[in-house]
Each structure stands twice: as C-alpha cells, then as structure tokens.
C-alpha cells in the first residue's frame, strides 16, 4: 500500500467512527456533532456552525456525518 492509499484509508476510517466528547468544533471549540470530509481533510463542527456553513460546504463535501439528532431531548 502506498502512502497516499494509506492516508486515504485513514480518512475513510475516521469518517466512519462516531464522534465523542473529545471532538471539538473547529470554529468555536464546543463539542462537535458534525464531521465533514473535504479533499482528504476533516472539519468538525458543533450543530450551530454546521448549520451556518452547510449551504456552502455540503455540495463540496465528500461526506457529511451528522450526529445532531443526539441533541434532541427525548422526553
């Protein structure tokens, strides 16, 4: 496996894993609930910043991993 292939497989693996409390929004540092992969890069966003940038980023994104449903209060 070449280094480029290895790098791409690592990005794929990262895109598949669930987000945790250690994942922080790249814009404000809050807990991240959305992961966007774009050109072999990863961006993490809280729900607020994901919504703010979604119109521009979603058409360009390779993947959009959204866990904001976890924020809904199930009463």
Can you tell me the overall shape? globular
In helices, the fraction of residues equals 25-40%
Uncertain regions: pLDDT < 50 for 5+ in a row?
Answer: none
Distance between the termini: 49 Å
What is the string of helix and strand elements? HEEHE
Q: Report the major sheet.
A: 3 strands, antiparallel
**What is the number of E strands?**
3
Quaternary: single chain
- Individual helix count: 2
Describe the structure.
This protein is an alpha+beta fold and 75 residues long. It has one domain. Helices cover 33% and strands 19% of the residues. It has two helices and three strands, in the order H-E-E-H-E. The chain has helices at 3-16, 47-57; strands at residues 34-38, 41-45, 63-66. A three-stranded antiparallel β-sheet has the order 2-1-3. It is globular and about 40 Å long. The relative contact order is 0.19.
List the helices and strands and how they pair.
Elements (H helix, E strand, L loop, with lengths): L2 H14 L17 E5 L2 E5 L1 H11 L5 E4 L9
Antiparallel strand pairs: 1-2, 1-3
Summarize the entry for a quick read.
This protein is α+β, with helices and mostly antiparallel strands.
């Amino acid at each position: 496996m070449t280094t480029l292939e290895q790098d791409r497989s690592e990005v794929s693996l990262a895109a598949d894993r669930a987000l945790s409390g250690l994942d922080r929004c790249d814009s404000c540092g809050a807990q991240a609930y959305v992961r966007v992969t774009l050109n072999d890069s990863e961006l993490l966003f809280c729900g607020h910043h994901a919504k703010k940038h979604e119109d521009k980023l979603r058409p360009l994104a390779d993947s959009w991993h959204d866990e904001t449903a976890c924020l809904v209060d199930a009463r």
